């Protein structure tokens, strides 16, 4: 793709002076347009490099595709002389004067915190999946590969350390990202999270602080406790920045913020939030175990519509809890959300391939071929917005296929034991014994 050429064509179709603001996500240009009547929609529809357009929440979005969208965006802001903004800042432009929905605001908050750390979790998850291949019996024979080939035991042990680290020390990743989102110093957020996972914390022991017994809880693998702690840290830090003289602000604001938040975390915030975290995880697992394949079937039917709303961006916060719970307990837990997402993504990709096989339109043939590959690898926006929703019938066919496959996956208790690419390659993240069942569901 000639990124500069595509950017010029988009600017020409929109109008050079018609941009109020511009941002981008993983696959789409997100624009706020001054006058939509000036848009040349036909030019965009007939552009072979534009995979679709749609309007939502006051934004005009143009689907370019993963990888290319970043470069097209860089060229576009230079050509149109638009100041680059983040997706959050763009949302503020589109919602100026509107009352915010608190539920959507909370989901957006989780998305802003977890999306930046997903690459680290995916890398750890895929390493965990590789270690599962090496250590699981009955996968390539009665013995695990490490038992059949002792020479790879050292390599397997190294992979185990690499795969576990992002999840054990996940509070540090969350602390950095949450501090940035809450407007606190990111290094203070990291320091607070490090305190919460310090190896000096001893389980079942406590400190005697002025007659108060404070448990030395360790928050390995935890998400909700560190989110709450960093939020409190941000409030204290901002309060002190406003009130302390500049001469002492630099020294005493970090000291007081970290010490007070750390004390509150170990005394009250951490234990309460850990109970809440365990309650959320146990509640989700209870629903999964109670509704069984019916629940996963309904979820599979609804997953793609959920993607259309953007609500799926909040799922990694839940999935990390399910994965780490399985890592710690190895019973009754596992990431079934990943399995359902994979079924939905593959189903949309299959429907898009159906359009590719049937259409006579050259542009749609090219668009549907690339969108098929993208969806099978876990990114469905080009397939959803560029192809399936345009024809409607393929979209609903995909929902049915996804629902049936997800129900069967629930019936056979297929779960993921790590995060990864929610598509065809998702088998790398599946519990080793369930991989054949997972692949069968993908075929369905």
Structural class: alpha+beta
Cα distance spanning the termini: 34 Å
* Topology as a string of helices (H) and strands (E): HEEHEEHHHHHHHHEEHHHHHHHH
Radius of gyration equals: 24 Å
Helix content: 55-70%
The number of distinct helices, counting runs of at least 4 residues, comes to 18
What characteristic shape results from the CA principal axes?
globular
The biggest sheet amounts to:
4 strands, antiparallel
Average pLDDT works out at 83
Percent strand equals: 5-15%
Numbering strands along the chain, what is their spatial order in the largest sheet?
Answer: 1-2-4-3
Instruction: Tell me the total number of β-strands.
Output: 6
Poorly predicted runs are none
Keywords:
Gyrase A, domain 2; 444 residues; two-stranded antiparallel ribbon; four-stranded antiparallel β-sheet; alpha+beta; 18 helices; 6 strands
Model description:
The chain is α+β, with helices and mostly antiparallel strands. Among the domains are: 3-99, 2-Layer Sandwich (Gyrase A, domain 2); 291-443, no CATH class. Helix content is 65%, strand content 7%. It has 18 helices and six strands. Strands 1-2-4-3 form a four-stranded antiparallel sheet, sandwiched between helices. The chain has a two-stranded antiparallel ribbon with strand order 5-6. A hairpin with a 2-residue loop joins strand 3 (53-56) and strand 4. It is globular and about 75 Å long. The protein starts with a helix and ends with a helix.
């Amino acid at each position: 793709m000639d990124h500069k050429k595509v950017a010029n064509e988009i600017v020409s179709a929109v109008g050079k002076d018609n941009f109020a603001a511009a941002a981008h996500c993983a696959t789409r240009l997100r624009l706020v347009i001054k006058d939509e009547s000036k848009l040349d929609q036909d030019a965009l529809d007939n552009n072979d490099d534009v995979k679709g357009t749609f309007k939502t929440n006051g934004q005009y979005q143009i689907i370019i595709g993963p990888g290319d969208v970043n470069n097209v965006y860089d060229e576009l802001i230079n050509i149109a002389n638009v100041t680059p903004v983040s997706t959050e800042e763009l949302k503020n432009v589109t919602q100026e004067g509107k009352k915010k929905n608190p539920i959507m605001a909370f989901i957006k908050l989780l998305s802003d915190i977890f999306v930046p750390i997903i690459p680290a979790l995916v890398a750890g998850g895929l390493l965990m999946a590789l270690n599962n291949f090496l250590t699981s019996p009955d996968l390539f024979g009665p013995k695990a590969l490490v038992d059949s080939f002792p020479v790879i035991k050292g390599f397997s042990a190294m992979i185990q350390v690499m795969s576990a680290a992002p999840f054990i020390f996940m509070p540090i990743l969350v602390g950095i990202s949450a501090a940035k989102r809450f407007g606190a110093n990111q290094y203070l957020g990291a320091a607070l999270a490090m305190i919460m996972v310090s190896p000096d914390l001893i389980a079942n022991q406590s400190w005697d602080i002025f007659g108060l017994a404070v448990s030395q809880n360790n928050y390995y693998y935890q998400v909700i406790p560190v989110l709450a702690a960093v939020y409190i840290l941000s409030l204290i830090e901002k309060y002190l920045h406003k009130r302390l003289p500049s001469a002492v602000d630099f020294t005493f604001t970090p000291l007081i913020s970290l010490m007070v938040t750390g004390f509150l975390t170990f005394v009250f915030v951490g234990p309460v939030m850990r109970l809440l975290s365990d309650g959320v995880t146990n509640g989700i697992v209870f629903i999964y175990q109670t509704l069984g394949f019916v629940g996963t079937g309904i979820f599979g039917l609804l997953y793609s519509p959920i993607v259309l709303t953007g609500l799926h961006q909040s799922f990694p916060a839940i999935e990390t809890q399910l994965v780490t719970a399985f890592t710690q307990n190895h019973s009754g837990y596992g990431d079934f959300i990943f399995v359902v997402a994979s079924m939905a993504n593959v189903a949309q990709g299959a429907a898009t391939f159906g359009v590719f096989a049937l259409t006579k339109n050259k542009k749609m043939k090219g668009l549907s071929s690339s969108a098929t590959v993208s969806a099978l690898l876990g990114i469905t926006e080009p397939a959803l917005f560029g192809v399936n929703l345009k024809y409607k019938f393929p979209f609903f066919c995909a929902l049915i296929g996804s629902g049936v496959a997800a129900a069967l996956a629930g019936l056979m208790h297929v779960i993921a034991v790590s995060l990864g690419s929610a598509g065809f390659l998702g088998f790398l993240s599946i519990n080793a014994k369930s991989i054949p069942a997972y692949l069968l569901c993908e075929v369905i």
